[in-house]
Design goal:
The protein is α/β, with parallel strands linked by helices. Helix content is 40%, strand content 13%. The strands form three sheets. An eight-stranded parallel β-barrel has the order 1-2-3-4-5-7-9-10, surrounded by five helices. Strands 6-8 form a two-stranded parallel ribbon. It starts with 14 loop residues before the first strand and ends in a 15-residue tail after the last helix.
């Protein structure tokens, strides 16, 4: 493994974690009463997934969760972020609950507790029950109320067993990729529909926050948003205006309703709102206090109005997704949010990179991923020095998994998965992350006047 040195020093209370989502790893697509989700339907539709695969088996986490929790514990992390499959616990998205589905998550939580790993639960990671899609999906306002009922039930059962509950993961993707360009499930290509869906997603968030607080869930409650800075390609007025609009239509479109009770004027001026249905008190429902904000950061928007558009220099290269590696954008984003909004505590709930990883001699050499993580942690540290209250970092993802419409062709994991055998192998990045966390804890214990020694589930060091 490469000998990387690290001088970063995070607070002793900082949360170190890994993240996954239900559809991407669980498999067991029709077992124990689970109903189909829109991603089951979408991935079984010819031509929708690049490699022709589906999520029927994925990483078989439903049957291998105990093994996977052992893997998590071996990394020295103290937190695990996962999502609940709505259609596993409520097959149609309304009506009867599925106790076998809830039992699975209860067993998972038991195993995490055995290993002293704190659970962070996400209610919705894009896998709407097909039964609700058949009734109009997120274009149907009633779906927001069904979501609130689902949120209340999960919070009632598990709210005392998890540290946080996030309503949605990346509603921008659900709206714009699911309804705007048809790239994701349910495969609708209608930009106006995407706007309406984004509003119903935000409404469902606010209703769910109220419903969970009504059942007095002890967990901290919030939402996870994918966000980015928007950099104009040149100093031209056109590029600057386009970058401002991009930021308004992406980051501010979701942040402003939650924190300011309105949509950003700049974005509203650029869209056709005549087909957008907003009820009188919707913003009162949406603007609920957050206990935390989850931020997912992968890249910046580089905005050019030229034809063809000017591209960034990508000095640090591109990931296997074709995304520019731009770690300073993490710091720039966090500082911009800190200036513009009264933020609650922030978690970096996703950050990571896809690589064309190969297993050779029992090892995966992914030095670029190590550099990626370290540079983004440095950007987080810089933002914290500027006053941003960041409480934790979750690498995306624990495992190589079903990467949505890319199928199994893109590998984000710290752990390499051989999909034919389901064999898991720690990549070099996993070994580095384990050692990095151990060194952090050892240094903090030293600063606190305690003995320095091997720390964590494996006691791993370099």
């Amino acid at each position: 493994m490469p000998n990387h040195t690290d001088k970063l020093d995070f607070p002793a209370s900082f949360t170190w974690g890994v993240a996954t989502s239900a559809f991407q790893i669980e498999g067991a697509a029709a077992e124990d009463g689970k109903g189909p989700s829109i991603w089951d339907t979408f991935s079984h539709t010819p031509g929708k997934v690049i490699d022709g695969s589906n999520g029927d088996v994925a990483c078989d986490h439903y049957h291998r969760y105990a093994e996977d929790v052992e893997l998590i514990a071996s990394l020295n992390v103290n937190a695990y972020r996962f999502s609940v499959s709505w259609s596993r616990v409520q097959p149609d998205g309304h009506g009867a609950w599925n106790e076998k589905g809830f039992d699975f998550y209860s067993r998972l939580l038991d195993k995490l507790r055995e290993k002293n790993i704190t659970a962070h639960l996400t209610l919705y990671h894009w896998d709407l029950p097909q039964g609700l899609q058949d009734m109009g999906g997120w274009l149907n306002r009633d779906t927001a109320h069904h979501f609130a009922a689902y949120a209340a039930e999960v919070a009632r059962r598990f709210g005392a067993r998890v540290a946080t509950i996030a309503t949605h993961n990346e509603p921008w993707c659900s709206a714009n990729l699911g309804y705007g360009n048809g790239q994701f499930a349910p495969g609708v290509a209608d930009p106006v529909a995407a706007l309406q869906v984004s509003h119903h997603l935000l409404l469902s968030h606010g209703l769910a926050m109220q419903a969970m607080r009504a059942v007095k869930a002890p967990a901290k409650l919030g939402i996870v948003l994918n966000q980015w800075t928007a950099t104009p390609a040149t100093d031209s007025a056109a590029d600057k205006a386009a970058a401002d609009l991009e930021y308004a239509r992406s980051v501010q479109w979701f942040m402003d309703p939650i924190f300011k009770g309105r949509y950003p004027e700049l974005a509203l001026k650029a869209i056709d709102t005549t087909r957008l249905s907003i009820f009188e008190n919707d913003f009162k429902d949406i603007q609920q206090p957050l206990d935390f904000l989850g931020v997912n950061y992968y890249f910046r928007a580089f905005v050019s109005t030229e034809t063809p558009p000017r591209l960034p220099e990508a000095k640090l290269g591109l990931t296997d997704m074709g995304w520019e590696i731009y770690p300073q954008g993490m710091s720039e984003l966090l500082q911009a949010l800190h200036r513009e909004y009264q933020l609650p505590p922030v978690y970096i709930t996703e950050n990571g990179m896809a690589e064309a990883d190969q297993l050779a001699g029992g090892r995966v050499d992914d030095a670029r991923r190590i550099d990626y993580v370290r540079s983004h942690l440095q950007a987080i540290a810089t933002a914290m020095e500027q006053g941003v209250d960041v409480r934790g970092y979750f690498y995306w993802s624990l495992l190589d998994n079903f990467e949505w419409n890319s199928g199994y062709a893109k590998r984000f994991g710290l752990v390499y998965v051989d999909y034919a055998t389901q064999q898991r192998t720690l990549k070099d990045s996993a070994l580095w992350y384990r050692s990095f966390i151990a060194r952090q804890r050892a240094g903090q214990y030293h600063h606190a006047g305690k003995a320095v020694g091997a720390v964590g589930a494996s006691g791993a060091g370099e």
